[in-house]
């Protein structure tokens, strides 16, 4: 009889009342109680040898006949299932096909097998080792690969840190250059603004100078034109007079005509002098002075 595992909560219907173990080849008496076939047969034999009278059920004492035992196949199946459940509680898997512990490992199929599986044609030519041995072997391989992967991770982390540091250093350099460029152009903007104000002021002065010279010259020309008109009118009137009147003060009239002609000639000469760049053309004179100033100013 197979011994039941101690301290296991078993269904009482799966135990034999005689041997107190799982039922083996269970049979049912006429009274309805179940026993192992071997246990109840041996019980009957002992009672007959000792001439203990009629055969009775060990539980209810109901009379029974030796040949009236009925095999209980349904109960036998239930008992087998209970055995598997109890075995599985021990932490080991059972082979579904052979109902044995899966204690071996097939390297080719990469799965656990039982002793019966190892001897079968399916695994006969395969490399089969103990489960613990295979676990230790593959655990060593996993540890070796794990060590390599950890070193690779450390290398990548170090490279990542170096890359980040290098990137930060480059970003600092670019930020410094950006600040330099911004400051340089800020100064350049200020310089250009100052130059703009300076040049516009000079242009304004030149414009005022041009306007002043123009007004002065036009005023002088206007005075000269007025004098010429009066003299022309006087000369025209004089030329129309009779001889006696024409000859009166004619020399004075001619002298005044010469004076005005001289004045006009001097004005023309003075006007001709305006063709010098600085006097006649203030803008050109300003441009010339500005170029000379820029050459003299250090960069």
TrEMBL record:
Protein name per UniProt: Tripartite motif-containing protein 10-like isoform X1
PANTHER family associated with the record: E3 UBIQUITIN-PROTEIN LIGASE TRIM (PTHR24103)
Pfam families reported in the protein's UniProt record: zf-B_box (PF00643), zf-C3HC4_4 (PF15227)
Chain intervals for the UniProt region annotation (Disordered): 268-299
Domain B box-type: 90-131
Keywords: Coiled coil, Metal-binding, Zinc, Zinc-finger
Entry superkingdom: Eukaryota
Listed Gene3D superfamilies: Classic Zinc Finger (3.30.160.60), Zinc/RING finger domain, C3HC4 (zinc finger) (3.30.40.10)
Signal peptide region: none
Keyword Protein biosynthesis: no
